[in-house]
Amino acid sequence: MRTVKGWSQEEAAEKLHMSLNAYGCIERGETRPNLNRLEQIAKIFGVELGELVSEKSILNVGMDFNNWYNNSPSEQLIELQHELEKSRLLLEQKDKEIEYLKQQNADLRAMVNLLKPEGKLP
Question: Are 109 and 121 in contact, with CB atoms under 8 Å apart?
Answer without folding.
Answer: yes
